[in-house]
Amino acid sequence: MSQPQTYDAIIIGAGFAGIYAVHKLRDEMGLNVRAFEAGSNVGGTWFWNRYPGARCDIESVHYSYSFDEDLQQEWQWSEKFAGQPEILKYLNHVADRFDIRRSVEFNTRVTSVVWDDESSLWQVGTDDGRTAIARFIISGAGNLSVPKKPEFSGVDDFAGEVYLTGNWPHEPVDFKGKRVGVIGTGASGIQVITEIAKDAAQLTVFQRTPNFATPIGNHPTDLVEEAEQKERYPEIRDASRNHFLGVPYNQVQPSALAVSEQERRKVFDERWNAGGFRLFIDSFQDILVDKKANDTAAEYIRNRIKERVKDPVTAEKLAPKDHPYATKRPPLETNYYEVYNQDNVELVDVKAHPIERITPTGARTSEGEYEFDVLVLATGFDAMTGPLLSMNIRGKGGQRLEDKWSDGPHTYLGTTISGFPNLFLITGPQSPSVLYNMPLAIEDHVDFAADAIAHLHTHDLHVIEATEDAEDNWVQHSNEVAEATLLPGANSWYMGTNIPGKPRKCLVYLGGAPTYRKICQEIVDEGYRGFDLSAARKFSVL
Ligand code: N01
């Protein structure tokens, strides 16, 4: 048996996080790194989610790396909100430009990550039976990378084709002339339904919870606007980093309840027409914290939906009433609601009449039988904690991460875990992560890990570990901040409630990226407050 390879750092994943981590640690710090990626190429989320209609909901000029000025100047987006193929092309371009692939082992899934108390090193097992050793682990395993397992009995007996939006085939799927059933109306469902409705002979949408979807406002890149943006990219990036969601929106007003109905309508109309996430994040500051303020936005959107859907019964089914606006992730759309005006589309309410089973020819609900040739599951992900818990991570004394997190995640800053030294989570649970612009959130976290490693090196130390106290305080703070918002009141993947048996805990830090960044900076400036740094032997390359 050959000796395990030893690295300074092992990086898990080659999506936005893994690509930047390889570049940062290898090219800028001179570390000996290796990345393991389950897919056959780079891309992460954008590699797996190649369903028709997959598109980014943040403007591409913002949803892109900021770490290299030449890169951001040279890349040109063809649309305001890029589709999945273009984002994947961009990530391949970045991988080429920085020669990332030579440090990545593709088609290699990490199956265990075990801390060795004696050597203070991590042992990483992969699905090809090998073990590799590293001082540091950077997990770029993603937040929405473990699709939820189908909850319906009978899926295996279905005689037609079955597709999962989160693990879509590389070959195009032809829906022309076919009867298609789609389960799920979250962000993925809404995007894929809009596309499938164009081709399918018959489309049956099984909706459990209607969503507050609002127009994305996509259009081909305006070259004048692009040139102007590129000229002041550093300023735009600063503004993004100082915004709750990581986008340079700056029109938010204090309270939806402090203005007249007419003024409120004007603000909502402007944000609706401008598109993107403006309606929820750039209209009124109290939308996410005050139910009455939220009700005004919710009612506005419900009315907009009803204006667009001709059949009043269908319109009523599509209008969300059981959760405040944006307490589930608000999807963005183009012509989604109009789909239900087509003769080939039927909406089935599976909250009123749950799916009992998938049959060989379709689905059976408590109300009746539905037949289709193709089943598309847009049923979501085991978000945030799922990717980490799927890797058999064992910390000091053999502690299993799944035991430590049996009542929900415990992290310090969403980047580190007490009892799991030298393990850095990129956009982990209890960080702003999915409620921040991901490429920027990722850059912040990779930089945080890189700085911590450099700090250890400078001080002749080699282990960094969050203290239990610091972690407990962060978990408490993160939960308290969440409780001050409307999010914990809704069932959503933010709260873990989409997965049966998953603890109901807010998985996202809701204090906003600017506050979060300030807290992280203070902790670093105070010599890594809340971390134990310990001395021992030096690591190999540094
Ligand atoms: O998953 P979801 P998603 N019976 O969990 C339904 C990101 N994203 O893949 O709400 C019947 O939101 C479920 O119903 P309910 C984005 O952050 C980004 O759509 O639980 N229905 C829901 O309708 C997003 O939020 C982009 O009642 C069942 C749907 O399936 C996140 O990924 C694009 C069911 C799942 O919705 C996840 O979105 C796409 C059951 N047993 C996604 N189980 C871009 O910005 C689940 N459902 C590009």
TrEMBL record:
Keyword Transferase belongs to the record: no
Annotated EC: 1.14.13.92
Keywords from the named record: FAD, Flavoprotein, Monooxygenase, NADP, Oxidoreductase
Cofactor(s) essential for the protein: FAD
InterPro entries (UniProt xref): FAD-binding_Monooxygenases, FAD/NAD-bd_sf, Flavin_mOase-like
Example GO molecular function: NADP binding
SUPFAM superfamilies named among the record's database cross-references: FAD/NAD(P)-binding domain
Keyword field contains Metal-binding: no
One Pfam family, short name: FMO-like
Top enzyme category: oxidoreductase
Family: Belongs to the FAD-binding monooxygenase family.
Protein's UniProt name: Phenylacetone monooxygenase
Taxonomic source organism: Corynebacterium occultum
